[in-house]
Amino acid sequence: MTCPLCHEEIDAAGAGYCVTHQRAFDNIKRAFSTWTVAYGSPRVPDFLEQVQKLPQTGLKAKEIARFLLENPSRWK
Fold first, then answer.
1. Would you say 21 and 15 are in contact if contact means Cβ atoms under 8 Å apart?
2. Are residues 64 and 28 in contact, defined by beta-carbon separation less than 8 angstroms?
3. Which end of the chain, N or C, is less surrounded by CB atoms within 10 Å?
4. What is the residue extent of each domain of the chain?
5. In angstroms, how far is CA 45 from the centroid of its own chain?
6. pLDDT at 62
């Protein structure tokens, strides 16, 4: 299987993305949990839009955020 964002090979069994995009996805999921504690119950699309705007957000995380906005069923 290949990563739906960059088409690199997916190494880990059960992973949905290549190593770098999987790490970015995991980081975004953890960040959402933190935001939920800090801000109540933000909507996922609102959170992902904010992630894309933050200057400290890395390129891979921005790519994942954009991908998840376009493919909301991938947020699991």
1. no
2. yes
3. C
4. 19-74
5. 11
6. 97
